[in-house]
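Internal QA ticket QA-208
Title: Verify multi-chain structure generation after dependency bump
Assignee: T.L.

Test input:
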Amino acid sequence: MRSDDTRVRKLLPLPLATVHILLSLAVEERHGYAIMQDVAARTHGAVRLSPGTLYRSIQRMLEQGLIEESRRRPVPGEDERRRYYRITEFGVRVVRAEAARLAELVGFAREIGLTPESA
Amino acid sequence: MRWYEWLLRLYPAGFRADYGDGMREVFAARRREARGPVAVAALWLEALVDVARHAVPLHVDVLRQDLRYTKRSLARSPGFTATVIVVSALGIGMNTAVFSVIDHVLVRPLPFADPDALVRVWEAPRGYTRLEASPPNYRDWAERAESFERIAAYNVRSANLVGRGDPVRLQGAAVTADLLPLLGVQPARGRWFTPEDDAPGAPGTVLLSHGAWQQVFGGDAGVVGATIRLDGLPYVVIGVMPPEFRFPDRRVAFWTPLRLGPADFEDRNNNYLEVIARLKPGVSLDRARTEMRGIMARLEAEHPVENEGVSANVFRLRDEIPRNARLLLFALLGASLGVLLIACTNVASLQLARSLARRREFATRGALGAGRERIARQLLTESVVLATVGGAVGVLLAGATLPLLARLVPASLPIAGTPSLDPRVLGFALAATALTGIGFGALPAVRAGRGAIAAGLRDAARGSTGHRRRTRRALVVIEVTASVALLIASGLLIRALGEVRSQDPGFRAEGVLTLRTWLPWPRYAATADRTAFYRRVLDEVRALPGVVSAAYSSFLPMVMGGGIWPVEEVDGQPRERSAGETASLRFVTAEWFETLGIPVLAGRPISESDTRDRPAVAVVSQSFVDRYWPGEDPIGRTFHFAFFDRRVVGVVGDVRVRGLERTSEPQVYLPHQQVPDSALMFYPPKDLAVRAEGDPLALVPAIREIVRRADPAQPVSNVALLEDIVAENTAPRVVQLRLVAAFAALAFLLAAVGIHGLLSFTATQRTREFGVRRALGARRRTLSALVLRDGAGLGLAGVALGALLGYAAGRAMQALLFGIPPADPVTFTVAIGLALLMTLLGSLPPALRAAAVDPNTVVRDG
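Actual output:
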């Protein structure tokens, strides 16, 4: 659908925190704290989402329809107030488009010899 | 973690409710990971930055939503919206305008360096608090006083300026060289006077005001260094003052050196110097006053005759405001605060009614998950939006009324004639807006809204609680109180104006044209030269068609209240020098009494045959006779006055020289030809009065032509109708009265609307109760009476409080009331009657509605 494509394109480029959260949720449903831990682990501690950044991003992403609250409830022994989030179809398309955009960017860099290896 | 809780509070409540737990968890984990004080400090710093980066945009988001919702919600009820905006705009606008005048006149520092240290120094003879200083006394003060850093003297003069275009008459001031350094002001162009300029015999120098430079010289930069002629004498323009420099007041167009010479220091009873001084740092006003009184006591010992009973007074320059002008401003402030109070009450009652009507909406939103804070915030946004629009309209309104208020700025102050809307005034408007919007708009709305959510959907549409009913009753009482007080205050002022207007000025002003030809010295220092001028002008003016009579006098009544001379001897007996022994001195030509319509009660008027070689004669007013020869024939009696023994040849009616509101000294009229040459420079006739049939103003071109033929260099100024001068005399009072009356009318109207709204609302809330009562057998009339009684009770309570407040206001402004007692029965009866009528009319429609309640509907639907 064209109009859907326009919706996707309108969101690009995504803020870095949004990309990380989408990638993290693309793997599995998680709660906020788990997202923070996952992102930190995947980036070897380089990206540590602050509580404000994390949850304001989540609020906005919920509004944009990139993610939704999952029905999954905390397992016994876990904090009962935890909420779980999962990526939506639309969210997957958006993060895919963002990845493609970034890949293209890396491609341009390579063409002129600016590869990570040459640095 | 306590600190983090506190930081979390900075996020919008809705966001906190949704994500607070998660944020706490994330932060706690990060806190556990942080090792060592540096890492902990970094984490806290990050938390602070986090709040700043995210909380603010989140609040902006909420605000944006609220504004969208507000726009829709207000658009749905345009009547409510318009009423609240108009009511707030009136309240805020009037108060902003009055505040700007009060700030301008009473509060703002004067435009000089360290203005609090500036004081005026006066002689204080027995019976006077302020009298201008004589040059010798001033010189001695300057030599002896330790309290002052500098002391300077000036006196107001005026001069004919010939040079560019038509000759003009300009107000000016003659000042000592010390004045400008004392005030701490620099000329915008050129230089200030040096002591050399101020020395007797130095070439004439003059400084121009910015206004004179613009108007008379078209802003020509080449004017500095040019020579102009003032009263026929050459003066070199040495500079131009900045636009905001107005000293001693805004009418002054030029400054020349005062140049006191040896002759000026001979007479200690020639009081004409205005004295200003700057207190040394750390010297108090009291200390300066004590010192000056000590100096004056020693001067009295040294000159026991001239300085007998003369002390000194020191006042802050800022406080030299006429008492009535100050009172008048406070009366206006009180009136405008009354309007604001009523406006606020109306806004509160409107909001209350609206939020009760919206209970279902709030309850629905509450049921859909909107928190209490969310709805409170929404209501706050609505009220603030309304108040802000009201405030903005109010400021525009204030800007439009400011020129009208300029009449309330006393002309005697060194400040601009019209106040301006500056940041301070806008700050005040903002505060008034916040008061209206938050204090009287949001709070009642929020309280009502909160109740709705707590009660839930089921009860939301039900009637109000007892607490809220009490609030509404209190609002009614406040509205009645404020409007009664305002009605009484303005009623008293109206009565006072009537009283002032009914005063007989002592002359007939209708059909009299006046204008001024101030003959300059030394050209006209000889009495014969002046006489020739008067004779020629008067002869030709009297020959003009329609002219009944024409005459010259030293000053016009009400325009010039001063010109007072001590009566030194009566029938050869010396009189004590005191305020009670003075009379107003006027030199006049023949036909003066005829032209002004002053009745000649005995003897004869001044005539053209009263010349220098004839005995010195005088015509006195009736009060002069009552003072010195009560019950006796005054004709032929003598008194020593203005250097000569004068023989009374006639008695005339008294004139209100000092205006309708002040007591005037008895009047003495002397023949203009009996002024010695080069003497009494201030007194030779300068004001021409012409009594004419038809339109006197039509004569002006012909009279100007006559003056021009008599002396081409002589300007004609101050053209006016005597009627206008009399009207001008009460103009400040009329302006003030109009304002107070407008405020009172406004308050009355607002209160009437507000009271009607509140009572209707109360009655509507009781519809169920009335239905049940009807069903139980209560008669229609009983229910109507119930509502009316309720209204009347509230009205009476308000009237009682308002009458007390009105009486207090009357007492406070008694000085303005011209003898009308603060408890004036006429005023009180009318004000109270109007207020009761307003309350009863307000409760009549709801009373009728109460009677019309159908018990069946109420019982079935309730």
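Spot checks passed. Residues 36-76 of chain B form the longest helix (41 residues).
Status: verified.
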